[in-house]
Write a structure and sequence with these properties.
The protein has 389 residues and is of the alpha/beta class. It folds into two domains: 2-43 and 286-387, Aspartate Aminotransferase, domain 1 (Alpha-Beta Complex), CATH 3.90.1150.10; 45-282, Type I PLP-dependent aspartate aminotransferase-like (Major domain) (Aspartate Aminotransferase, domain 2), CATH 3.40.640. The chain has helices at residues 7-10, 16-23, 44-58, 72-86, 100-112, 127-134, 152-161, 183-193, 251-265, 270-282, 285-310, 336-345, 375-387; strands spanning 30-31, 95-98, 118-123, 139-146, 149-150, 164-169, 199-203, 227-232, 244-247, 316-317, 325-329, 348-349, 351-352, 365-369. The strands form three sheets. An eight-stranded mixed sheet has the order 2-9-8-7-6-3-4-5, sandwiched between helices. Helix 3 (44-58) crosses helix 10. Bound molecules: 4'-deoxy-4'-aminopyridoxal-5'-phosphate (PMP). 4'-deoxy-4'-aminopyridoxal-5'-phosphate binds next to helix 5. Homodimer. Keywords: Aminotransferase, Pyridoxal phosphate, Transferase. It holds the Pfam family Aminotran_1_2. This is 2-aminoadipate transaminase. Belongs to the class-I pyridoxal-phosphate-dependent aminotransferase family.
Length: 389
């Protein structure tokens, strides 16, 4: 029935990571491939208490259909948190609860992208965003990612050459590289976008997970009229609830996003929204996040030490200040996909760079996740990868 499928789905790559995760399900494999939070960071007992409490307190309401925009107290909580932490003047009207921030990407695609619209993304970029946007058949243009953020000369040239509808960024502890944009780069990007109507998307699921350095202001949130900020509970509470959010002060955009979400799934899981709000207001979320940060700091430094010890000097890698990923580069001409196959034979996995680009194959780069392996496994896994380099 090939001729029956839409152009959108035929143009959308299947998630390479899902394919890899199938290979890495065996217990013998040390996997740095997935982007999984460490399950010991899930506040199971506190969530259990919150689940019981909201059922007692709100009874059938927690199981009923609900509004598309999301549970009001949760939207208020999120707005207040941005106000306190980043001095952003968001209110509940600026927040739409989504089914993970992944849905936020899909809704932005639905609302903004016509076929062949030019969409700028980091190069390399988050493959889930490439996948979500591909459905709407844009023309992707990659902006090189440097150690301190986007190559702003390249961005400037592209903005001058062509009309860019949307610029997608992950400014903190980027997926896949772990890179964080510097203050200067953030200001430069904001300056470049202030002259045009390009929609800036700042996707920030990892922002709370900083274990080194100071928090930096967002690029355009609260500054540029066409700016969108995405957040999620996936990395600080649990990904299984599938709860994220879109923040924007642009009322027209918000209106269309709400309609697109209505058409998509009516609303996100209301029970999970009640439980999340109860959990956030009955527990010390700051100290919970501090524990996750300490854990990831140890795992990240263990991986860095192991790479220093075992990898040849010609292999370069990023040193993240937070988040869940590192990005390694083999000398030019070498393929990380080949390395992946050799490493699989040694029962260790990572994600080769190809799916993070829209324009190259056999990239010499690969992504390593450090949050879902204990320090011993991290040491051993890096040693095994080094043995087939
Ligand atoms: N954006 C980025 C940059 C991510 O890394 C992820 C998770 N892998 C997502 C969005 C999706 O997260 P969520 O669980 O909130 O849908």
């Amino acid at each position: 029935m090939e001729q029956l499928f839409s152009d959108g789905i035929r143009n959308t790559p299947s998630s390479f990571i899902r394919e890899i995760l199938k290979v890495t399900e065996s217990d013998e494999i040390i996997s740095f491939a997935g982007g999984l939070p460490n399950p010991i960071s899930f506040p199971t007992k506190d969530l259990n208490e919150s689940a019981n409490r909201v059922i007692q307190q709100y009874e059938s309401k927690v199981f009923q259909y609900a509004t598309t925009e999301g549970y009001e107290p949760l939207r208020e909580y999120i707005a207040n948190r941005y106000q306190e932490k980043y001095n952003l003047s968001y209110h509940k009207e600026n927040i739409l609860i989504t089914t993970g921030s992944q849905q936020a990407l899909d809704l932005l695609g639905k609302v903004l992208i016509n076929k062949k619209d030019v969409l700028a993304i980091e190069r390399p970029g988050y493959l889930g965003a490439i996948q979500a946007f591909s459905m709407y058949q844009p023309t992707f243009t990659g902006i090189d990612l440097e150690n301190d953020g986007l190559n702003t000369n390249m961005l400037k040239d592209k903005l001058m050459q062509t009309k860019i509808k949307l610029l997608y960024t992950v400014p903190n502890f980027q997926n896949p590289t772990g890179i964080t944009y510097s203050f200067e780069k953030r200001e430069q990007i904001c300056g470049l976008l202030s002259d045009c109507d390009t929609v800036l998307v700042e996707d920030d699921p990892y922002g709370d997970l900083r274990f080194e350095g100071e928090n930096l202001p967002y690029i355009g949130a609260n500054k540029l009229p066409n700016s969108v900020l995405l957040g999620s509970v996936s990395k600080i509470i649990t990904p299984g609830f599938r709860l994220g959010w879109i923040c924007t002060q642009n009322k027209d955009l918000m209106k269309h996003l709400v309609v697109a979400k209505q058409a998509s799934d009516l609303h996100s899981n209301i029970f999970a929204q009640y439980v999340t709000h109860d959990y956030l207001t009955h527990n010390d979320i700051k100290s919970h996040i501090d524990k996750i940060r300490q854990l990831y700091k140890l795992q990240s430094s263990t991986m860095l030490q192991a790479m220093k010890q075992y990898f040849p000097e010609s292999v370069k890698y990023t040193k993240p200040q937070g988040g869940m990923f590192m990005w390694a580069s083999l000398p030019d001409g070498q393929s990380a996909l080949d390395l992946f196959h050799r490493a699989s034979e040694k029962n260790v996995a990572f994600v080769p760079g190809d799916p993070f680009y829209t324009d190259i194959t056999n990239a010499p780069t690969f992504r390593l996740n450090y949050t879902n392996s204990n320090p011993e496994a991290i040491q051993e896994g890096i040693k095994r990868i080094a043995s087939v380099m």
